Amino acid sequence: MKKENSYKENGVLLLEKGKKGMFYMVFGRFGIVLISLLVQFFILFSIFKFLGEYMYFLFGGVVIFNVASFLYLLNTDNNPTVKITWLTLWTVIPTLGIFLYIFVKLDIGHRAVKARLKHLQKHTEKFVKDDQAILEELNRDNKEVANIASYIRSTGSFPAYNQTKVTYYPIGESQFEEMLKQLEQAKKFIFLEYFIVDEGYMWGRILNILAQKVKEGVEVRMMYDGTCEFARLPRSYSKKLRALGIKCKVFSPIMPMVSTHYNYRDHRKILVIDGKVAFNGGINLADEYINRIDLFGHWKDTGIMVKGPAVDSFTLMFLEMWNIDEKQEDDYSKWIGLADRQISSEETNYSGYVIPYGDDPLDGEHVGKLVYMDILNHAEDYVHIMTPYLILDGEMETALIFAAKRGVDVRIILPHIPDKKYAFALAKTHYKALLKGGVKIYEYTPGFVHAKTFVSDDKKAVVGTINLDYRSLYHHFECATYLYDMPVVMDIKKDISETLKLCQEVHLEDLKKQKLSMVIIGKVLKVLAPLM
Q1: Which fold has domain 111-354?
Q2: How far apart are CA 422 and CA 428, in angstroms?
Q3: What percentage of the chain carries pLDDT values higher than 70?
Q4: Which residue, 76, 278, 306, 384, shows the most beta carbons closer than 10 Å to its own?
Q5: How far apart are CA 137 and CA 163, in angstroms?
Q6: Around Cβ 28, how many Cβ atoms within 10 Å?
């Protein structure tokens, strides 16, 4: 290990010192990328403006073009809310807005990735197969759950499992401590895939273990999203990790070019150890997630640990993402099927069914959204939700309201202290309709809720990375764990009940006290919400 590549602070291994000030942002890679993008936008708009000067002579053709475009959009299978956004944009900036739509829909640069993912999913489905006995048992137990399990399975290698233990963590600190314990026990491999990684106590403690495990012969692979290089880590950080013996990739790094690829971020949080243990949930690898630093008050997050055969699905999710740009693929059989098929009789938390699943924005299936809607549509007594963001399309808003109007106790816990004011303003645009429809809304007064959790009827729950916003439901690579008839579901219910005690309920009369600026910002941004 080169001395200049690493240092220790309070016994924690770090690789990059400082370089997070304004000077670094302006004169470093951030500034170069920003200037490059601004130049490209200026050139594009100059071209459009130049063409616009001739529109007087081509007015008839433009009118025909615009009308044809409107008719085309109205007859597409786009979400109705998305259509409204584009129609509004076309009305405000005709022709230019249509060219922007064409640019987005062409999705230049992602056709190859889409084809590659399709190939990987087809190639890997043989490694994680359905257990026919489990399917038949689930079908007898609950036909509705069997149906959603069948749908999830059809979107990738995501079968239903039993004989799997799931442990729920109601706060980031408790999951972090268990992650350290499990990492220390690694013998064969460690796979990490995270949206955010930032130097500090949390990542430093983990990195210490990873560096040691590499020396012991454990294979360590790390993936993080390219937005980290934009705001958290230097571009050279992956090289620093590789210098420690850690195989590292950056998913879709920010590049100095105008592209739709910025839409598709890797928002997943997966840690797999030896194919026997997996962690999933909302918790990234940065100090705010374990309340070592205070950014927006107390940070409320949740996660789970999975032990048993269901770990295979997380392993496969990771490997498919890892192999997107590989010429020679992994021998998947080397990494799959390593967990014990039979949990020890001492384990008491393994009854029921577990379905880990991923959501891919390039396959046309909105798995995360449809799983949430299925829970809402089949709930009988209650659906309790924790989510950091509430930026809904008409379908999801209708599902929430319809469930409440059927007599289901629908409660949503949101942050009281937001991390993004624009997202908070957008969330509040839904409050009135939801409250009138009978949905109960609560804000977590100690700070910020980052958990993405559903629980319903003491039987069903989802814990994962999927927010109730357009980014998660339509544009990001996501993952979650669907739980049915497991004891851990009651742990999730209890946590939400305890969290509600720390919340203030929002009433219709409270909406009159909102700042006018927030109301205006929310209403303006709502038009563009599907594009944000």
Answers
A1: Endonuclease; Chain A (3.30.870)
A2: 10
A3: 77
A4: 278
A5: 13
A6: 15
